[in-house]
Write a structure and sequence with these properties.
Elements: H1 2-23, H2 31-40, H3 46-52, H4 56-72, H5 76-101, H6 107-118, H7 132-147, H8 152-162, H9 168-183, H10 189-213, H11 231-251, H12 257-282, H13 305-319, H14 325-365, E1 373-380, H15 390-401, E2 406-408, H16 420-426, E3 446-453, H17 465-471, E4 480-484
Helix pairs in contact: 1-5, 1-6, 5-6, 5-7, 6-13, 7-8, 9-10, 9-12, 11-12, 12-13, 14-15, 14-17
Length: about 475
């Protein structure tokens, strides 16, 4: 009966937490540029953009999806959506197995860890396919961790494939440190320490080898470079981890000696993983924004799903010894509900942006195409989604008129680009470079202005917006696009 309940809960959480990732069939954020490649077959600007940043695996997978699309008619977005969902499910399974095998928690606590992965509140970033490879690489890496115990050749292959996500270089050292914390004893301390050191040294040598063979830092050499901008975040984590470790040392007193030692090692190992999951991004000046619901910057917190799940399961396993089953189940349900609510904050923000762009496309399609050149769109009577870039608006006009002949402003909060001088400055580039902005067919420099009006629209989204999207009906917002005469 208990096993069936676990299966039912896992299935329901997977459907609720990951279902939206299968529902969206249009692209957002940077993958709008890839969508332009899918629609036109022109990859001349996309190839150097991705390859100059070292994103080899996603580029060739995008090309593969384009070929499959030409042969079968299956939209490329279907493949990236499926890969994201399968990867998250796979990560949840690997965390479950890790908790059972290495952390030795109860089966119920291991399920709690898997559920935390399923509900981790950043998965909304995969509404865009731009970072789909990140979650695939994390899954491959966790498969490599498990394979290391029985097939090191397979583990190394999976590990190398996972290194497209460069933060894995730091995360694997975190796993090595965690393993050291689990296995080091007085009688084997030096031997275990040397093995761990040599393993970490090997990872560093592999990193330097990658740095010679693969472009890790972009064409200008500034991408993913080490700096101290997030030093305060690292110090804050160290203080937090110290407090959690002190709490674990206090709580272990209620356990028998053998269980107390294992509990302490488990907590220390999870905190070590958390340190290196954060250090992978803090070291290059990237903050971990768990609650960036409108943007995609919470992608930097992706690795954290593993240590958070481990700590949740360890805490559940400990609490089960002292708290009644019903009270613990109620508390667990509250935590999972909170995670789902936070996750849907991100989903709702993302679907609002998708709907807004679709309304723009439809309204432009109803009007005569403006002369080729600059197009300024102002939001009248509402706040537009804050993270729609200019090339996404250009895509709306491309979808409406079948050509990329306009250079529009976006609604991204930090670069609104309102006014002709701002547009001219932003698009002051060779014609070939404009391909990367979905503006490759521009033939003139006319300046057209539009006012876009919607009613009752909330840029942060609402849960019922998903119904509007599923029906493709946005009449409730009364969208209207009006040409402003100069």
């Amino acid at each position: 009966m208990k096993e069936r309940a676990h299966t039912v809960i896992t299935t329901l959480l997977a459907l609720v937490a990951l279902g939206p990732l299968l529902a969206v069939n249009s692209e957002s954020w940077d993958t709008t540029l890839v969508q332009f490649g899918f629609m036109t077959g022109d990859w001349s600007s996309i190839r150097p953009w991705l390859l100059d940043l070292g994103w080899y695996e996603p580029y060739y997978l995008y090309r593969l999806f384009a070929v499959i699309n030409s042969l079968t008619g299956i939209p490329p977005k279907v493949f990236t959506n499926l890969l994201c969902v399968l990867s998250i499910l796979g990560i949840a399974r690997e965390v479950f197995l890790l908790l059972r095998s290495r952390h030795a928690v109860s089966r119920e606590a291991a399920f709690v860890g898997a559920w935390v992965v399923l509900c981790f509140p950043i998965w909304h970033i995969f509404i865009s396919s731009a970072v789909f490879i990140n979650i695939v690489c994390l899954w491959l890496f966790l498969l490599a961790v498990r394979a290391w115990r029985f097939n090191k050749a397979l583990a190394f292959l999976l590990f190398v494939l996972s290194l497209q996500l460069y933060s894995i270089f730091a995360f694997v050292i975190g796993f090595a440190v965690a393993e050291f914390l689990f296995t080091a004893r007085r009688d084997n301390f030096m031997r275990t320490a040397v093995k761990t050191f040599l393993f970490c040294l090997g990872v560093l040598l592999l990193y330097f080898l990658f740095n010679l063979l693969v472009n890790l830092h972009g064409k200008d050499g500034t991408y993913n470079t080490i700096n101290l901008q997030q030093l305060d975040s690292l110090l804050q984590y160290v203080a937090t981890a110290a407090a959690l470790m002190a709490a674990a040392l206090f709580l272990k007193k209620k356990l028998p000696p053998d269980q107390a030692e294992h509990f302490t090692r488990s907590v220390a190992a999870a905190l070590a993983l958390m340190l290196f999951a954060g250090l992978a991004y803090w070291a290059v000046g990237r903050p971990l924004r768990f609650f960036s619901f409108g943007s995609y910057s919470s992608r930097h917190a992706m690795l954290m799903c593993v240590p958070f799940a481990l700590l949740a399961a360890i805490a559940h396993d400990y609490a089960a010894r002292f708290i009644g089953r019903k009270r613990l189940a109620a508390f667990t349900a509250c935590v999972l509900t909170a995670l789902v609510v936070l996750l849907y904050q991100g989903y709702d923000h993302k679907i609002a942006a998708v709907i807004y762009k679709e309304m723009l496309t439809r309204e432009f399609a109803k009007t005569q195409a403006p002369p080729s050149g600059y197009v300024e769109i102002t939001a009248d009577g509402h706040t537009p989604p804050k993270h729609i870039h200019q090339y996404e608006v250009n895509m709306s006009l491309f979808q409406a008129y079948g050509k990329a002949a306009w250079m529009c402003n976006g609604f991204w909060e930090s670069t609104r680009m309102l006014g002709l001088p701002a547009l001219q400055k932003h698009y002051d580039m060779p014609q070939a470079s404009r391909r990367l902005y979905v503006a490759s067919d521009v033939t003139g420099d006319a300046y057209s202005r539009y006012s876009f009006t919607v009613k009752g629209f909330h840029q942060e989204g609402r849960i019922w917006y998903w119904l509007y999207y599923a029906l493709g009906s946005y009449g409730a917002f009364e969208p209207r696009l009006s040409r402003i005469d100069s």
